[in-house]
């Protein structure tokens, strides 16, 4: 009991945010319920992003009804690689990444050969709402398959590494690079076993990482060091993330982005309830940073100014960048 | 944000205060018992009237019955008599029953039966009484003896109370010649009372004779004489033989005045025998019975006013918030993961039918079998709705089979399964299997165990009989619960599991 109180005090002192605080002080406070569909439905997110001129993976088509599954061939056309996603999926579930065609069959990114029927069944499952939040009927989205930049080759196992930036009222507060592992099955979700690596907001250089709630500095599959890697085009990522506030209107979001080797930074999806493991990856609590941003906004509000995305990025980089690792 | 917090604080305070006030009002003012085990005495008094009727005259028997206007309340009163007309009337604070018959002969037996209990409500009607009266006429040696007695009594007393008790003491003093003269060799309480009455009347102190019955089970009773005097605000009771002041709690006032208990016209050898017994009764049932017989209908607007069947449903329903509270604490304070938000409460409700141990076994068996069926169906690539239907049907068949087997084996417990909510089980299986596929078996097991644990705990708390009684009787407690839930809505602290989850920070800090 005493030990627990000590742990509690120590975590509080370091500004570690718990789920209850995140929900009460940030998600409920800054995220208006009626805006949730924008981030919960990837198709709406994509449409909004395109309208705002933000880069997203190209959408090949949408399947809304069982009948439309017939059109799958037409949508895919001659492409040999594509991704099928549930529009309202959560936690990366129900995503099928086809890397290649193999005679009449398809090969997924993990090397599994599947038939056309299996793909159709997957789409049917998506439509019935198997993967959607709350089990509602859903739409299936077929889109461009991202090819990760070569920079990640050495520190990633299969799959597509992505970059998650937590954005509070348009100010990036914390960033993390998520690397799939053998255990996560190519998915970049931390609770499925992916690695989270902290990123310095100012420089885009990676810090140490977290894997299954532990702090690590090497990728468990490739044994290459995950820290000290310079992410290319970092300011581009930061600007992209900061501009997502205008895109969706939600005040506290996690922005998931990828670095495509041809198309550069792309927005994959937005998350209205971003996870807390990013704190372990950065070895830093969120609360102090969010408080700093809130104080900054309050000071600006007094003078009646609001800043644009570029200024916000610079403010955030000034406040939280250049982390010194112990 | 600040104003919202203030708003919330006010709301919580109001709710909690309201809940506490209503509950306290129920407990302390209305006197509703706090636990179900509290019982109250229920007295059953029989007065048996026997007499011999004269064959020629009409018969009229008048007997005093308790007025029941103070500490006791009657639950049931009956006059048992064949061929007699019965009427009850009130005179001077007394109640009198009159039995009458045109023709009767031989030995007659009439019964008066009264079931009563102490009054719940503590509010008392304002009592009135005389504070002055004229002296009784007295002549000759008695007058001198009385006056001789009065002088020291006056000297030794300060107020009505001490005056009366001093008088009683003097009259009961066997060595006092004056008292002896007045008693004229008759030492019965009745005579003493008469002498005391005389003495007090000289001092203009009003006095009444009170005839009481002692509430003691299984001992023959005859009315006991007490005296009482009004001191301006309350009646003071005195024992005419000992001067003892204050009426003991077990005395029931039967009638007041000089008249006899019973008067018989057209009959003779009238005797009245009292017999009584007491039984204990669940206090709340008793309160309800009393309620029907009094004006104070404090239970009228409680849940006890509902029909019995509905009451039983509500006994379960009022406990659901307690179960929800358990889930709330387990999830938001402890951080245990459960399947869905309120699924554990539904499972806990299902445990009511099956009992806990058996319920857990059943839940585990059916879920495990359902999961294996689900994983088989996965290969068939069915759509969700047909697949769910198949699982549901399978669950029904499984439950039927378990019921049948357990019945054949003589385990009646198995039959309760039939009411185990099948839809809950089906949804549990479906969600669990999805969790299994997406998050792995370990996570699914964790969630399943968490759900079972939460359900068991909720079930245990929801079936504590004392708690059920308390919440059902004092539903305002739910307001206090809502207050707590509201406070939890703004809880920002860590969950217990987070302390473990974020341990990585501290290990590094130590190193």
TrEMBL record, chain A:
Q: Name one GO molecular function term.
A: metal ion binding
A Gene Ontology annotation in the biological process aspect, one of them, is: SOS response
- The residues covered by the ATP-grasp domain are 46-301
SUPFAM superfamilies, sorted:
Glutathione synthetase ATP-binding domain-like
Which taxonomic lineage does the organism of this UniProt entry have?
A: Bacteria, Pseudomonadati, Pseudomonadota, Gammaproteobacteria, Pseudomonadales
* InterPro entries reported for this sequence: ATP-grasp, ATP_grasp_subdomain_1, RimK-rel_E_lig, RimK-rel_E_lig_ATP-grasp
Gene Ontology CC terms, in alphabetical order: cytoplasm
The protein, known as: Alpha-L-glutamate ligase-like protein
Organism per entry: Pseudomonas putida
Q: Which PROSITE patterns match?
A: ATP_GRASP
